[in-house]
Every structure is written in structure tokens, then in C-alpha cells.
Amino acid sequence: MFTPVEAAEADRLVEWGLQEDLGDAGDITSRAVIDPTTRGEARIVARQPGVVAGLPMLEVLRRRHPEFGIAAAENDGPVERGDVVAVLLGPLVTLLGLERLILNFLSHLGAIATLTSHYADAVADSRTVICDTRKTTPGWRYLEKYAVRIGGGTNHRIGLFDQVLIKDNHLAWLGEADPTPIKTAIERARNSTPPGTVVEIEVDTLEQFELAIREAPDIILLDNMSSETMAKAVARRAELGATSLLEASGGLGLAQIPELAQLGLDRVSVGALTHSAPSLDLSMELSKGRAEATS
């Protein structure tokens, strides 16, 4: 089920999608070829194993097109090839007009959920969790992060407004006039944000890590470090009895994840979950069918 924010984003995207596909004239091909009184059934079918995500959008879409109904819909989650994930009933002209929007929506979110599930499986026997990033499609962030959760991942910060993440550019700017930029940045972040705001800092050397962990940020992001270097960081944290979470990041592929999971890292953030997931193959099979739907 979508949260209210996710439902609002879905409604906005559905509105945009309908306008760009149907315009003001609608589906002129279907209207020309098919009797508008003909009713039918549309079955959304998985053509490959994966994780489907975004099925609540069907109800969002139905509110804008009440002439069709949802006869059946599975919950978001794992599917096998040939599984029917939803059945829609209504005028064939309407179902054909909505086909591409529905498939684009579900294939995109299903792609993210499916890829995330592969990463999540790779850390299943460890303490490590898989996180997303802000590398999302503009306008789709809440729903893409929803798909990450459906796939077994964890959401990183939503945007620049809900968590501090001090990066190399921030430190470089401070370092021009401050001999202790890491200490200064963390102190300023704590002093200028509400209590409880997560403060994270990015480091790319063990020297930076040593300076950062002594300031006890909530999270230290180990950026583009080798496995050997990250293992040293994990060991140093244990030696100090520090509580900062350790997060690995930096172009990490699926093949690297099992090794990272054995290092004792808390989190691995992966931009590819939302920017490089291959589409989940779904189809819509249409036929003349029942005249009534359940919703």
C-alpha cells in the first residue's frame, strides 16, 4: 500500500502520463476500430521471474477512469513467469488506452524492486543492509524508494531536507580556511539542525576516517575504498568502541556485495538500484470478458 505521499506522487504521475499518451483526442486508433460498447478483460502477466511493485497505482488510475474496474490484484512482491498480477474489467477502448501507461509504470517500479532483491539476497546472512541513493528519476523519488523497500532494501535520505550528509565538496570549501574541516562540519551540522537529525559524513581515506569517528557522527560513508581499507575501518571502530554506522558506497556492483557483507559493514548504498535497473517484462493480455468488476 502506498503512503499518502506516495499516493499523491502516483496520482500526479498518472495525470501526466495520461496527458502525454492520450492528449485531448484520446486513443484515436482504438476508438476508430473497436465498438465503444464492447467490454473486456485485461490480464497483466509477468513474463519473467521478478518482484512486482506499484500495483496500488491501479486504484489511483481507476479513480480517474471509473469506467474500468479491478477484478483482482495481487500484493506487490515476488512473481514467477506466467503469474497473473492483476485483472481489469471494462470497455476495451479504455483498457487499450491505458495499457502502455500501466505497463510502463509497473515495469519501471518492478525493475527497481527486482534488482534490489538481488542485492538484498546477497547480504541476507549478514548485518549489512542495502540502501538506495538520491540518484532517482525526477518526479519519481518516493515511488522509486517505495520499490526499493518492496525489493528488500532500505531507504537512505529522501532529499537534502531530512538528513545531513557532509560530502567532499563541503569539506574542500571549509578546508580553504579551516585546519579541522571534518570537526567543524560535524559541529555545525549538529548545532544548526533539530535534535535527532541524522548526521553523516563522507570520507575516502583512513586518515579522514580517524578524524571523523572521533566526532561520533551517526554514519560514516566510506567512499570508493578498497575492501582491505574498509576492513581496517571496521576494525578501528571496534577498537575504539565507537557507535557510528559504517556505510560503503562508490559504484558497487552486485558481484562485490557478498564480500562487502562479510566485512561487518552496516550499510551499502547503491545508486544502480534506481538508475540502472533493467525493465521488468510484463504484458497485458486482452479479451472479451466479464462485465462486472469488484471495485
Automatic annotation (TrEMBL):
Domain of life per record: Bacteria
GO biological process: NAD+ biosynthetic process; quinolinate catabolic process
UniProt GO cellular component terms: cytoplasm
Pathway where this protein functions: Cofactor biosynthesis; NAD(+) biosynthesis; nicotinate D-ribonucleotide from quinolinate: step 1/1
GO terms for MF: nicotinate-nucleotide diphosphorylase (carboxylating) activity
Domain Quinolinate phosphoribosyl transferase N-terminal: 27-109
Domain Quinolinate phosphoribosyl transferase C-terminal: from-to ranges: 112-285
Protein name as annotated: nicotinate-nucleotide diphosphorylase (carboxylating)
Organism: Kolteria novifilia
